[in-house]
Amino acid sequence: MQDFSPVKILLVEDNPGDVRLIIEALKDSKIYNTLDVVEDGPDALEYLHKQGKYAAKATPDLILLDFDLPTLSGKEVLEQVKTHKDLRVIPVIVLTVSQSEQDILRAYHLQANAYVNKPIDLDQFISIVRSIENFWFTILKLPGR
């Protein structure tokens, strides 16, 4: 039996412009999805652990994570997600402006599932978000789906 429940995406992003672009790209999606947005690392962890105002939130099917976050970095969030027994199965895609080889290696050492540079160009940004969506929700089989 096919599952028609929406794909749940958690976006951890502090840049309102990038949030708007991702929302627009996913709005025209062929994939039925819901998108929740948090702006920093502490809120991301609270969301994932279903604490406080996020107590009723469902576990996401995918996390889109900016590495450059205030308060608690994306690297620290990734490390905590991938070392938690219940959260580590959630695919995490790092979306960042950093092209640093050190950041790329760090992301993969922390078990990110993908590392994607945010392009400056609007059309490229939308294309990348749609490619992520197509690959992760059409081609791959995710746990629990």
Largest sheet: 5 strands, parallel
> What number of domains?
1
Which structural class do you get from the secondary structure elements? alpha/beta
CATH fold field value: Rossmann fold
What is the alpha-carbon Rg in Å?
14 Å
Roughly how many Å apart are the termini? 11 Å
Overall mean pLDDT: 87
| Shape, principal axes of CA atoms | globular
Q: What's the architecture, going by CATH?
A: 3-Layer(aba) Sandwich
The largest beta-sheet arranges its strands as 2-1-3-4-5
% residues in beta strands: 15-25%
The CATH C-level class name: Alpha Beta
- Contiguous uncertain segments of 5+ residues: none
The SSE string, one letter per element, is EHEHEHEHEH
SS element count, helices: 5
CATH superfamily: Response regulator
Helix coverage percent: 25-40%
Strand segment tally: 5
Helix-strand layout with pairing:
Layout: E1 7-12, H1 16-27, E2 33-38, H2 41-48, E3 62-65, H3 74-82, E4 92-96, H4 101-109, E5 114-117, H5 122-139
Parallel strand pairs: 1-2, 1-3, 3-4, 4-5
